[in-house]
Amino acid sequence: MPSYKLYYFEGRGLGEASRQLFALADVSFEDVRLTMEKFMELKSTLPYGQMPVLEVDGVQIPQSVAIARFLAKKFGFAGKTEVEQAIVDGICDQWKDFYAEIRPYCYGKFGICPPGWEDLEKAKTEVLIPARDKFFGFLKNLLNKNKSGFLVEGGVTYADLFIVDNMTSLVGWFSGYFEGHPEIEAYYKRVQDIPKLKAWLTKRPNTPF
Ligand SMILES: N[C@@H](CCC(=O)N[C@@H](CS)C(=O)NCC(=O)O)C(=O)O
């Protein structure tokens, strides 16, 4: 078994889906959580100066989605066929587009408002809610296409993990996040109820994002 070391900040952010893949697969890893001060010391040694970074037997892999996809393929959470894997990759890309679209709202919540978006209520109504409704429509179509309860027929994948973890941040900031979307709320709970994931969620540090 290779030795795995995952570097990220204390929060969930872009590192959490990979931590969850280790938990789902019951594979041990070193969960390195850096303070900003420690990160700044290491920054110049990281491939793109950012985290997450996964070290596999000392070799560094950057970029959150590449890391999660690598682990998901190894552990069986990337889709069951090549076609399904491509669909899962596309779902994750679509989620990244959504993540970019809602930046004015999320960055406000991180305390780094982009210029012109200082009013968080305005960012919620004009950016988050329309983007959410569009994205939830895509998720509903995917959920209705199969009977697994997840986004593809072959069961839970790394795309479910990114999407559901991001929902945890959003519903923490905006309690009405699932209002009018009971199927999506049920999906959110279904993913978190997977026994090994539930065990991880219970023991991990509790952070707002
Ligand atoms: N596209 C990259 C983005 C990585 C990223 O933005 N990382 C942030 C934390 S979420 C970071 O390292 N920020 C510190 C910095 O850029 O100095 C990914 O998905 O991994």
Automatic annotation (TrEMBL):
**Recorded GO terms, molecular function?**
glutathione transferase activity
Q: What catalytic activity does the UniProt entry give for this protein?
A: RX + glutathione = an S-substituted glutathione + a halide anion + H(+)
Domain GST N-terminal stretches: 2-79
Q: Name one Pfam family in it.
A: GST_N
Domain GST C-terminal, residue spans:
81-209
Q: Which organism is it from?
A: Diploscapter pachys
* A Gene Ontology BP annotation from the UniProt entry: glutathione metabolic process
| Family membership | Belongs to the GST superfamily. Sigma family.
Keyword entries, A-Z: Transferase
- What is this protein's name? glutathione transferase
Q: Look up the EC number in the record and give it.
A: 2.5.1.18
